[in-house]
Write a structure and sequence with these properties.
With 610 residues, the protein is α/β, with parallel strands linked by helices. It has 20 helices and 25 strands. It has a seven-stranded antiparallel β-sheet. The protein has a five-stranded antiparallel β-sheet with strand order 1-10-9-11-15, with no helix packed on it. A five-stranded parallel β-sheet has the order 17-16-18-19-20, with helices on both faces. The longest helix has 22 residues, at 428-449. The two termini are 47 Å apart. The mean pLDDT is 89.
């Protein structure tokens, strides 16, 4: 905030509105006054925002009319005051808060270290603020320094910055991470989402990708990356606070579909050490137990169960460990044979799913070690499991899961790579190559989302559909299960998923002229087999949409009615890309049919009762 009011209470009030995101530290930086030599006071606290409120007497202990604040969910470095934002240069010439991830921060740190910079934290953000400072010391002009740094930085960011020599201004820059600017008669506001400023103003500007802005108490000036000033029209927010959290998207589900690249990025980064290797030390996994591990059970419900189905293929292929996948609601009521040296993995977005929690307790009664893959820190399943891996998908509000599912897939991939390496099934070079492929997934997801309008057009043609069949083989079958669930959950179109080779064993009797079949065919070794299944259903009058690799799209087009090309990655990681268009298809089919996308009938987000 910069304006006529005391900044600290406004900053803390805004951070309170965003605390539902579950961050683990917070901080503010406030300039005492507008004199050129005015001190910038930085106050940080580990833990929930309450600690910072107490430390600053609700902001009253930090006077000043200009400041920036931040709440953090650790991705680089443990939660601590040192790693908390704001970050700054040693001489306080530049102070910065950041949402997003700097992908090449290690490279930036190394180059700046050679130039004499020292680093006090483990964060990627500190590399950004000191890179901007290095350019600022050359040019003496903030916008020049920021734009030069933007050309060097790879990753996503929403920056809010204070420069000591420019006491009457705040500066911002954005790439991929959300950022809005609000304005009223009292001053200007910067936030990552509307709820943070909705009690102060409903007049906002949306800053575009690779754009910057300079804010004073009375005005906002926007610039492109070439420092050319650009004009923007303000937007009046009409939503209530709950709707405003959608960040401009019509539905939470669409917003969360688009947040998947970031959720995957954050989850990947949380499992990598500074050498870029998979590191689960934070989960305290017992190395001696892992070396003796003979079997893994995946136990879950709904979409999380579908993650387990994919996990079976991935872990057995990479780590050569026998895997069994169980529905939690079934596992809990039978007397499962859980041999010694078995790991039972419970997957749950909320960490409170009743059947999954009961299955966890059943497994522990049987003497098995348990591992939870959950998205909510401190949830019951996380507390009760022997080990816990957190997915960093952030809060997911839409009932039909999207980004939590994708983050769970990433956790499974990381688990498989680590187990395979630990058991001598992967060399260090092979593991490094797989990690590199993991890190490429978010960019490929973004490419897929750029094709959204094409999927929307196809979905609009399916308003009258009564039955849809999803088919695939191997991992493509695992993704077909999830695609079918998404379709039935939110569009209320009856859909079923079948292993493609099972069609002739009964389900093909349901195919009649006009039936829609969605075939997933992204496994080169099984491509011809799936094409044969497509020909079988087409011979009975079905219309077929085929999802296949870009390299196989032309061939698929000779058989299928419609083809949707998918970027290629390692075959075992392909599900992360294949699921995106199926989610988008379900969303737009539901939208076309007038369904309540975020709150489908009869469903709840967290199933905490049996």
């Amino acid at each position: 905030y910069i304006g006529k009011k005391q900044a600290a209470p406004i900053l803390l009030r805004g951070l309170e509105k965003l605390e539902y995101r579950g961050y683990d530290s917070a901080g503010i930086a406030v300039r005492e006054n507008s004199a050129p030599d005015a001190k910038i006071n930085i106050v940080k606290a580990k833990g929930r925002l309450k600690a910072l409120l107490e430390k600053t007497d609700c902001g009253r202990a930090v006077p000043g009319l200009c400041g920036i604040g931040h709440t953090r969910w650790a991705t680089h470095g443990e939660p601590s005051e040192l790693n908390a934002h704001p970050h700054c240069t040693d001489d306080l010439s530049v102070v910065l808060v950041h949402n997003g991830i700097i992908e090449n921060y290690q490279e930036i740190r190394e180059k700046l270290t050679k130039s004499g910079y020292r680093f006090y934290s483990q964060t990627d953000t500190e590399a950004a603020v000191k890179l901007i400072d290095s350019y600022y010391k050359q040019s003496g002009e903030p916008l020049t320094a920021i734009s030069q740094a933007m050309l060097r930085i790879r990753g996503s960011y929403a920056f809010a910055m204070m420069f000591r020599d420019f006491p009457d201004s705040l500066f911002v820059a954005r790439k991929d991470s959300p950022l809005i600017i609000g304005q009223n008669g009292d001053g200007c506001y910067i936030a990552s989402d509307v709820p943070a400023i909705l009690d102060s103003t409903r007049t906002v500007y949306y800053i575009g990708n690779l754009e910057m802005a300079q804010l004073t108490a009375g005005a906002v000036h926007f610039y492109n990356i070439d420092r050319e000033e650009i004009e923007k029209e303000p937007v009046q927010i009409q939503w209530d606070a709950e709707s405003a959290e959608k960040g401009g998207y019509e539905h939470f589900m669409l917003k969360e579909i688009h947040e998947q690249p970031q959720a995957v990025r954050d989850t990947i980064q949380s499992y990598l050490n500074e050498q870029g290797e998979i590191d689960f030390s934070a989960a305290s996994l017992d190395d001696a137990f892992l070396k003796q591990l003979e079997r893994i059970y995946f136990v879950a419900c709904g979409s999380a169960y579908h993650v387990g189905v994919a996990a079976q293929y991935v872990l057995e292929d990479l780590a050569k460990i026998p895997v069994r996948v169980e529905l939690a609601s079934e596992f809990r009521y039978r007397d499962p044979l859980v041999p010694e040296n078995t790991l039972v993995v419970i997957i749950s977005q909320s960490g409170e799913t009743a059947d999954s929690l009961a299955a966890l307790r059943k497994a522990k009664e049987q003497g098995a070690k348990t591992l939870a893959i959950v998205n909510v820190v401190g949830s019951t399943i996380a507390r009760e499991a022997d080990y816990v891996f957190y997915t960093l998908a952030g809060p997911e509000i839409a009932v039909a899961t999207t980004k939590a599912y994708s983050a769970q897939l990433l956790a499974v991939y990381a688990l498989a790579i680590a187990f395979a390496q630990d058991r001598g099934q992967l060399t260090d070079d092979q593991a490094a190559a797989l990690v590199q492929e993991l890190e490429s997934l978010p960019g490929k997801m973004e490419r897929l989302l750029e094709d959204e309008e094409r999927i929307q057009w196809f979905a609009s043609k399916q308003i009258a559909a009564k039955d849809i069949f999803f088919i695939g083989r191997g991992l493509d079958y695992a993704i077909s299960l999830e695609g079918s669930l998404k379709m039935k959950e939110i569009s209320y179109i009856h859909s079923e998923a079948y292993a493609a080779g099972e069609l002739k064993h009964g389900p093909i009797s349901l195919i009649e002229p006009g039936t829609l079949v969605i075939a997933v065919a992204t496994i080169p070794s099984l491509f011809d087999k799936t094409m044969a299944n497509i020909r079988e259903v087409k011979a009975r009058g079905a219309k077929v949409l085929c999802l296949t690799l870009e390299s196989m799209a032309q061939e698929a087009g000779k058989t299928a009615d419609y083809v949707l090309p998918i970027p290629e990655t390692h075959p075992l990681l392909q599900p992360s890309l294949n699921v995106i268009p199926l989610q988008v298809l379900a969303y737009y089919a539901a939208l076309a049919r007038g369904c309540d996308v975020d709150k489908p009938r009869n469903l709840a987000k967290s199933v905490t009762v049996e």
